[in-house]
Predict the 3D structure of the following.
Amino acid sequence: MDQLNETLRLYWKPILAAFFVLAMVLLFRGCVKEEKVAPAQPTPSAKKVSGNYIPYTRPADASPITGESCANHAKRTYGVMFNGDRGSRQYFSNLSQADFIAEIPHRMGHGQPRILAVYGCNMPETVGPMRSGRVDHINVAASLDAVYVPWGGSSVAKALLKRGGIDQLDCNGEIAPGGGAACFRRTGPMNTLEKASVNLPKLASVAQANNYRSTTNFKGFDHQGELAVAQRPGYSKIFVKYDDPYRVEYEYDSQTNSYKRFFQGKPDIDYETKQQYAPKNLITIITKKEAWYAEEDYVGKGLDDPWAGVAESNRKRDSGQYPNMQLGDAWFDTKFEGEARFFFNGQDVKGTWKKADAPDAKFEFFDRAGAPIHFVPGQIWMHVLEHDRKVSHDSEEEYLEKQAEQQAGVQ
C-alpha cells in the first residue's frame, strides 16, 4: 500500500495530464461532424477533339460516311471501279453522287490514277465508265465494308479475290460471283471500253441473290458542324500533283463550303448530272509506291504471297507492272500509318492516317495533336499519291500577299 501511494505521488501529474488530453480529444470529436470522403471515381473521358471542332448534332438517319441524312444509312455500300484515262473522264457518270471517292495510281510506269467510288445514299442506274481495279482499291473498299465492284482486275488483285473473304461482284464475269444483268454497255458517243457501266439498284438485287449481308458494319467517320459563312476564308486553292496530265486543282467556294474540282485547268463536270464535282472534304496521302516482283520472297517477310494462284506465265508478265501503295492493306503491306493532309471548312489541317492490320479495319485520321479528324457533312474525296509527288495549298493570306506584290510591281 505504501508503495502504491509512493507511485501515485510520483506520477499523478503525468497521469492527470494524459486524462485531460484524452477528454479534450473526445470532446472535440463530438462537436465536429466527421465528413466522409468518397473514393475517387473514374470519370468518363470525353472524346478528344480538335481545337477547331464545331459542335454537330448528327441526324438519327445519318450516313456513317457522309454524316448527312440518308434513307439508306443502314444499308451496305458498293465500291465501283471507274476508268482513269483522259478519254473516259469526260464520260464519268454519277460520280458526283458517290459518298466517298478514292483516287489511286494503278500502274508502276506512270501515275495515272483510277477511281473507286463508294455509293450508299444514292444508287444511280448508270455508273461508269468502269475498269479493272487493284489491291489498293480493294483495301479501301473493304475498310468501308463496301461490296467491291470491278470490271476485271490485275492478276494479283484477281487472285486475292478468288481466295475469298471479300464480298465482290465482278462485272467482267472473271471472278464468281459476277454482276450479271446489272452490268451493261450503254449507248452513246463513247468507245466500247468507255461504255462499261453498272446499274446499282439491280446490283443490290444481285448481291441479295448471292446472300451478301445487306446491312453495313462500317462504324463511320467523325463529323462536325460547318463554319459560319462569315468566318470562312474567301480564297483557298489546292493542287494535287499526280503525273501530268492527271493533276487536279480545287478552288474553295465559301458559299457552299465545298471544293470545286478542275481537271486540266477546266471545271471537272459529271457527264450525267452536269454538275461540277465539289466535295466537301479532301484527304491527301503521299506514301511509298512499290510493286510485286516474281523473284521476291514475300512469305519470308511475314506477308501473304501475292502470286498465290497466279499462273507462271502471268507472273512473268506482271512482275513489276502493278503498284502496291503502302496504305495499310492486311495482305502485302508493312506500313500502317503515315502523314496526311485534310481540307474542309476552308481549312488546311496537317495530320496522320492509321489503319489496323486487318482487312476490314477502317482508316482513322488524326490532326498533329492526335485528335481525331472530324469531317464536315458531305462527300469525301481521298487522293493517294506516290512518294515523289506533292500536294500544295495557296491560302487566303498567301493570295492577298501575291495580289499586293503584283499591285506594288505595277505601281
Q: What stands out?
A: The helical segments are 2-31, 86-89, 135-143, 155-162, 200-209, 312-318, 396-410. The chain has seven helices and 20 strands. The CA atoms of residues 398 and 404 lie 10 Å apart.
